[in-house]
TrEMBL record, chain B:
This is Prolactin. It is found in: Secreted. The keyword Glycoprotein does not apply. Its main location: secreted. Keywords: Disulfide bond, Hormone, Secreted, Signal. SUPFAM superfamilies: 4-helical cytokines. GO terms for cellular component: extracellular space. One of its GO terms (molecular function) is hormone activity. GO terms for biological process: positive regulation of cell population proliferation; positive regulation of receptor signaling pathway via JAK-STAT; response to nutrient levels. InterPro entries: 4_helix_cytokine-like_core (IPR009079), Somatotropin/Prolactin (IPR001400), Somatotropin_CS (IPR018116). It comes from Betta splendens (Siamese fighting fish). Pfam families: Hormone_1. Belongs to the somatotropin/prolactin family.
Length: 210, 187
């Protein structure tokens, strides 16, 4: 039978400069099936085809900087074809300004410092490498979360645009897990960074901080 | 100093865009895309004639005064349409009509405050920053006769504002980071 209807599942831009779209194939009708992505750009009659089916892996289309415009509507459709016919997905309208989801922050470091004999954690990180915060083209805010290794509940702190965050009230001798994530001013939260473990030295006060 | 003015201006532009996003979500909550798709409506925003950068490379090549001039031109072009949106909101056939109406009042206030701030800022950034492009809104006061066309045209106008407020926010944040050269931790 002709192929089933593919579905455009999502489009994301990691740094407001490029973007990628992914689709879910429908049934292949028991026959070899190919997928092609076509798009229209706002107020332009030309029908374009996906510029790069490879960079972002299977069932995806990558739009490089040269193929990415912001504040411009893209009307995107995926077509599945086998020898018995073709089936089109529902079209999806996107504007890169609304689909920014950065990679997680990098180089997360956690050090134990002391303030008048009280230990505290200093968490520091770098923005994801691809996000150009330096020029202001993308503005990121961050969140830090921390929990005791053996516990389940996280304590979450909004760090704003800063890249250093101090955490006090620690459990003497406790081992903590720390993660950081980021979000553009108008967009989606990244995934959490990988876990960073830190052990707090024993000190005379045993208080449950988390 | 200009850095502080730009910092405050970009906080206001950030808020302005967030407000327009919340308003759009409020509107979308009871106005399915299907209703919008079948409705004829203007295809271009009234500000689309203004040539603005469309990616990072273009934006970073624009001078400070031109970026500010673009932001001011876009913002000033919304003075009249926001009044039309505000008046139309009072009779909008939408379950969240009063919320939308209140949010629009807030939007107008923020737009005015940001505009006043940019006027002060442009005075400190030289004559080129004073240039403002005139982008007339020719859509008329009436946004539609029947329920669906009212909602579709209202939605379209709001989507144009949302896009322009994102442009303004992006331009001001680039300006802010240029001004913050001496404080690298700021950007």
């Amino acid at each position: 039978s002709p192929p089933g209807k593919p579905t455009l599942t999502s489009c994301r831009s990691p740094e407001k400069e490029t973007f990628t779209c992914w689709w879910e194939p429908g049934s292949d009708g028991g026959l070899p099936t190919t997928y092609r992505l076509f798009y229209l750009k706002e107020n332009i009659e030309t029908v374009y085809e996906c510029p790069d089916y490879l960079t972002a892996g299977e069932n995806s289309c990558f739009f490089s900087k040269n193929n990415t415009s912001i504040w411009v509507n893209y009307n995107i459709t995926v077509v599945a074809t086998n020898e018995l016919g073709s089936t089109m997905s529902d079209p999806v309208d996107i504007d890169v300004m609304y689909i920014v989801m950065p990679h997680p922050p990098e180089k997360v470091l956690v050090s134990v410092l002391e303030d008048k004999d009280w230990p505290f954690l200093r968490v520091s990180w770098e923005p994801p490498q691809k996000a150009d915060t330096r020029s202001g083209w993308i503005t990121l805010v961050y969140e830090v979360r921390i929990k005791l290794e053996e516990k389940d509940d996280w304590e979450v702190h909004l760090a704003g645009q800063q890249r250093v965050f101090n955490i006090f009230s620690l459990l003497s001798g406790g081992t903590y897990i720390v993660q950081v994530r980021c979000k553009p001013d108008h967009g989606f939260w990244s995934e959490w960074s990988s876990s960073t473990y830190v052990k707090v030295p024993n000190y005379f006060h045993r208080e449950n901080s988390v | 100093p200009i850095g502080d003015l730009l910092d405050r201006a970009s906080q206001r532009s950030d808020k302005l865009h967030s407000l327009s996003t919340t308003l759009t979500q409020e509107l979308d909550s009871h106005f399915p895309p299907i209703g919008r798709a079948i409705m004829p409506r203007p295809s271009m925003c009234h500000t689309s004639s203004l040539q603005t950068p469309n990616d990072k490379e273009q934006a970073l090549q624009v001078s400070e005064s031109d970026l500010l001039s673009l932001a001011r031109s876009l913002l000033k072009s919304w003075a009249d349409p926001l009044v039309i949106l505000s008046v139309s909101a009072n009779t909008l056939p939408h379950p969240a009509q009063s919320t939308i109406s209140n949010k629009l009042q807030e939007l107008q206030e923020h737009t005015k405050n940001l505009g006043d701030g940019l006027d002060v800022l442009s005075g400190k950034m030289g004559p080129a920053a004073q240039t403002v492009s005139f982008l007339p809104y020719s859509g008329g006061n009436d946004i539609g006769q029947d329920r669906l066309s009212k909602l579709a045209n209202f939605h379209f106008l709001l989507s144009c504002f949302r896009r322009d407020s994102h442009k303004i926010d992006s331009f001001l944040k680039v300006l802010r980071c240029r001004a913050a050269k001496m404080q690298p931790e700021m950007c």
